[in-house]
Design a protein that fits this description.
The complex is a heterodimer of chains A (229) and B (412). Chain A has 229 residues and is an alpha/beta fold. Chain A is 36% helix and 28% strand. In chain A, the strands form two sheets. Chain A has a six-stranded mixed beta sheet. Chain A is globular. Chain B has two domains: 197 residues, no CATH class; 173 residues, no CATH class. The longest helix of chain B has 44 residues. With 412 residues, chain B is of the alpha+beta class. In chain B, α2 crosses α9 and α9 runs antiparallel to α10. Classes of the chains: A alpha/beta (229), B alpha+beta (412). At the A-B interface, α1, α2, α3 and α6 of A face α1, α8, α9 and α11 of B.
C-alpha cells in the first residue's frame, strides 16, 4: 500500500470555533494508481492532498505515506519524504521564475545532491518525456501555460517519485493542452508505474482517471474502485 | 522511457548544507537576488557607497592620526621629554620658576647631543608696528633630535640675532626671510629688554605647536638674553637612549605627549561616524524593505520550495543569505569603484586646502590615508554581519507561514 488514510479528521480554527474540512476519511491507494479526489470547491480534496503530501498534518486519525505516518514526522523528516519520494504539480505551475526550464527541472535533483552529470542526464531524459528539449534555456515567462505545466510535470517526475500529487493541474489550461498534459501523465503512470493522485473537478481529468473518489463536505461519498470493499 | 531508479534516502547526508546542495544555496540566492533587478542594484549601490565611505573616512583618520603622531615626534617631541617639575605648559608664570640648569647626570649625553635643552621665555614682537605675543624657544643650533632647521641659527656677528619661524607664523606676522623685527622680553630680574632680531629662515611644519606664535633662536643666545646661563625648562631625549629618573625632572614619553593630539583626532572622528551611520542605516532600511516585500511577493515560491523538500528553516536561511548577498555584491561593486580611489589616495595623498591653524591639530598640507587590511576586513565583516541580521528579521516570517497557504500565495 502506498497511502493509507485512517479515520482522518481535519479541522481549521475559524474565530472561536472550527471548520471541519475532512471528517472520518478512510481510503487506501496502492502502487501505480491513477486516481482522483473529485468534488466541488470546499469538499476537502486539496486538504486531503496536502496531508498526503506531508504539507499539513491530521487533527485526528492517521495518514501513512510510504510507510511513514505523516502526523508523527518532524519538519525535517517530512521535508525528506517530500524531497525523495513525492512529486507535486500545482494549478498555477509554481515554477521558479528566475530559473530556466532546465534549472527548474534540475532543482529537485540539486536538493538531493546528485552529481552534475547525473543531473544533466536525468533532466534531459525527463524533458524528452514531456517534449520540451527545445526549450531548455527558456524562462517560465517565455512559455505558454501548457508548456509551463509540462515543465511542472517534468520537475515532479525528474526524481522518479513513487507518488505524484496533482492539485487541479488543468485548471488554467485550454482543452487541447489539458488533454496533452493528461496523456503525458497517463503515459508516465503506465511506463514508470508512478502513482498519481489528483484533486480536481475538471471533467476532462475525470475522464482519464482509473479510480474516482468523490468527496462532499469532507466525507467520501463514492469510491469507484475501492481497494477494500 | 527508462526504468525507475530509486534515489537513496541518505543521498545528501554528508553535505555541510544537508539538503541544500552545497554551493547550490549560494547560486539560488544569487539568482533570486539578481532576479530582483533594479531594486537590488539600488540597494547594492547605496551599500557600496557606505562601504567605500566608511573605509575612506576611517583610512583618512588613521592616516591623519599616524601622520600627526609621526610629525609631532619628528618636529617637537623626539624620543620623549624631561620637564622640570615646576613647568606647567598652561601656566606662563611657571616658565621663570622652572628654568633650571642641566642635571649633572646628563652632561655626557648633552655633549653627544642625545639630550637637547630647550629654554622657554615669553616675549613680544612688533611687526609693522603691531604688538604680537610670542614664545621664545632656545635650542642648540647643532641639534639633530628634531626636524627644525636650527643650523640657520648660527651667527658670527654678535649684533645679529638670527631666528627661525614657521610659515604660518610668518604669514600672521607678515615676515619674510632676512626681515628684522623688534623683540621685547624680560630677563631673570624682570627687566624689559628689546632688540631687533633677524628672520634667518622660515620652515614649513605640519605641527602647529612649533609654528604658531613660536620664535626659535639659539639656546646660548636666549640664555644670554634672559641672563639664565645653562638654564632650560625642557630636555629633549634621543630615541637611542633609555629614559631615566632624574631629581626635579619628570619624564614624559611619546604616548603621553601625543595623548592630546590623539584625543582631538578621535573627537573629530565621532563627527564622521554620524555621517556614515546615516548612510548605513539608509542602506539597511532599503534592504529590510526589499526583503519584506520580496517575502510577501514570493509566497508561492516559498511554498513551492517547501513542497520540493526544503524545510522552512532552510528557506529562512536561503532568504537571509539572499539579503546578505546584497552586502557581498556591495563589497564587490565598492571594490571595483573604490579600490582605484583608495590606491590613488594612498599613493598621492589628498591636498588639504584648509589652514592648519584653524584645527589646532598637526595636519600636513597633503594627507595620506592608510587603508590597512584590518580596516578593510573589519568593515567588510561589519557590513556583512549587520546586513545578515537585517535580512534575517523579515525572513523569520517564513518559518511561521503555512506552506499550503503559501503555495496558493495566501499565507500573508
Amino acid at each position: 500500500m502506498i497511502v493509507e488514510v485512517k479515520k482522518l479528521l481535519k479541522r481549521f480554527p475559524i474565530g472561536n470555533g472550527f471548520f471541519t474540512a475532512l471528517n472520518g476519511i478512510n481510503i487506501e491507494f496502492s502502487e501505480g494508481e491513477f486516481a482522483g479526489l473529485v468534488g466541488p470547491s470546499g469538499s476537502g480534496k486539496t486538504t486531503l492532498l496536502n496531508i498526503i503530501g506531508s504539507l499539513d498534518v491530521p487533527t485526528e486519525g492517521e495518514v501513512v505515506v510510504l510507510g511513514k505516518s505523516v502526523g508523527k514526522l518532524n519538519p525535517k523528516e517530512a521535508a525528506q519524504l517530500r524531497k525523495s519520494e513525492l512529486g507535486f504539480i500545482f494549478q498555477n505551475y509554481n515554477l521558479l521564475p528566475v530559473y530556466t526550464v532546465f534549472e527548474n527541472v534540475e532543482f529537485p535533483l540539486l536538493l538531493l545532491n546528485m552529481t552534475a552529470n547525473e543531473r544533466k542526464k536525468r533532466v534531459m531524459e525527463t524533458l524528452e518525456w514531456v517534449g520540451l528539449t527545445n526549450k531548455v534555456k527558456s524562462r517560465p515567462s517565455q512559455l505558454s501555460g501548457g508548456e509551463c505545466q509540462r515543465v511542472a510535470i517534468a520537475r515532479a517526475m525528474v526524481k522518479r517519485p513513487k507518488l505524484v500529487l496533482a492539485d487541479e493541474p488543468t485548471a488554467n489550461l485550454d482543452s487541447a493542452n489539458s488533454h496533452n498534459i493528461l496523456q503525458t501523465m497517463e503515459k508516465l503512470n503506465k511506463e514508470l508505474k508512478t502513482s498519481f493522485i489528483f484533486a480536481t473537478h475538471d471533467e476532462k481529468v475525470i475522464g482519464y482517471l482509473k479510480r474516482i473518489i468523490r468527496l462532499d463536505d469532507g466525507k467520501v461519498v463514492e469510491d469507484t474502485n475501492p481497494l477494500t470493499p | 522511457m527508462t526504468k525507475q531508479k530509486k534515489i537513496p534516502d541518505n543521498a545528501n547526508l554528508n553535505s555541510p548544507f544537508s539538503g541544500l546542495g552545497g554551493i547550490f544555496l549560494l547560486k539560488t540566492a544569487f539568482r533570486s537576488l539578481i532576479g530582483n533587478g533594479l531594486k537590488t542594484w539600488l540597494n547594492v549601490f547605496v551599500l557600496s557607497f557606505t562601504f567605500v565611505l566608511i573605509i575612506f573616512m576611517q583610512g583618512l583618520l588613521e592616516g591623519w592620526n599616524r601622520q600627526a603622531l609621526n610629525d609631532t615626534i619628528k618636529w617637537e617631541i623626539a624620543g620623549g621629554q624631561y620637564w622640570n617639575i615646576k613647568y606647567d605648559p598652561y601656566d606662563p608664570f611657571s616658565l621663570d620658576s622652572s628654568a633650571s640648569v642641566l642635571p649633572s647626570g646628563f652632561a655626557s649625553k648633552y655633549k653627544s647631543h642625545q639630550i637637547e635643552p630647550v629654554l622657554l621665555s615669553p616675549g613680544t614682537i612688533y611687526p609693522d608696528g603691531r604688538m604680537q605675543s610670542v614664545m621664545l624657544k632656545g635650542i642648540r643650533s647643532d641639534q639633530h633630535l628634531v626636524a627644525l632647521p636650527t643650523n640657520l641659527l648660527k651667527s658670527n656677528n654678535e649684533n645679529d640675532i638670527p631666528v627661525i619661524i614657521g610659515n604660518h607664523m610668518a604669514r600672521q606676522a607678515n615676515l619674510k626671510v632676512n626681515d628684522l623685527v623688534t623683540l621685547r622680553w624680560r630677563d631673570v630680574n624682570g627687566t624689559f629688554e628689546a632688540v631687533d632680531i633677524r628672520v634667518a629662515g622660515i620652515f614649513s611644519s605640519p605641527v602647529p605647536t612649533v609654528d604658531l606664535g613660536q620664535i626659535w633662536l639659539s639656546l646660548e643666545q636666549l640664555q644670554k638674553m634672559t641672563m639664565r646661563p645653562d638654564a632650560s625648562n625642557i630636555l629633549l631625549k634621543s630615541v637611542d637612549i633609555p629614559a631615566q629618573k632624574v631629581a626635579d625632572w619628570s619624564f614624559k614619553d611619546q604616548t603621553e605627549l601625543t595623548k592630546q593630539t590623539t584625543a582631538m583626532i578621535k573627537a573629530k572622528a565621532n563627527g564622521y561616524d554620524v555621517i556614515y551611520t546615516i548612510f548605513f542605516l539608509l542602506a539597511l532600511i532599503a534592504i529590510f524593505d526589499t526583503q519584506t516585500l520580496s517575502i510577501f511577493r514570493r509566497q508561492r515560491e516559498i511554498g513551492t520550495l517547501v513542497a520540493l523538500g526544503m524545510t522552512q528553516k532552510k528557506v529562512v536561511a536561503l532568504f537571509t543569505l539572499e539579503g546578505t548577498m546584497n552586502a557581498v555584491l556591495a563589497i564587490i561593486v565598492g571594490s571595483i569603484w573604490g579600490m582605484p580611489l583608495f590606491i590613488s589616495f594612498a599613493n598621492y595623498g589628498i591636498h588639504i586646502p584648509m589652514d592648519v591653524s584653524s584645527f589646532g591639530i598637526p595636519m600636513a598640507d597633503r594627507m595620506y590615508p592608510v587603508f590597512s587590511p584590518h580596516l578593510i576586513i573589519g568593515t567588510m565583516s561589519l557590513i556583512i554581519v549587520i546586513t545578515a541580521l537585517v535580512s534575517y528579521l523579515p525572513a523569520r516570517k517564513i518559518a511561521r507561514m503555512n506552506p499550503t497557504e503559501a503555495i496558493r500565495g495566501k499565507a500573508l
